[in-house]
Design goal:
By secondary structure, the chain is mainly alpha-helical. Helix content is 55%, strand content 0%. The protein has 3 helices and no strands. The chain is elongated and about 45 Å long.
Length: 65
């Protein structure tokens, strides 16, 4: 059985400073990286249980943004 950490830090407002925009981009990049890493660690059966195929992981992570 797989467990996912659902904690996700709040992103800075899009109308903020250049620093907050940079920070938001870093957070989004890291969130995608962690999602792909966690999903790639699942077995084929576990992916099937949540309705994903291995080839869809990258697209799924992109859609989460």
């Amino acid at each position: 059985m797989a467990a996912f950490d659902t904690f996700r830090p709040a992103l800075p407002a899009s109308h903020g400073s250049a620093f907050s925009n940079l920070l938001g981009n870093i957070v989004a990049w890291n969130d995608r990286r962690v999602t792909v890493r966690m999903l790639n660690r699942l077995t084929e059966q576990e992916l099937n249980d949540i309705g994903l195929e291995r080839g869809e992981i990258s697209r799924f992570a992109d859609l989460r943004r």
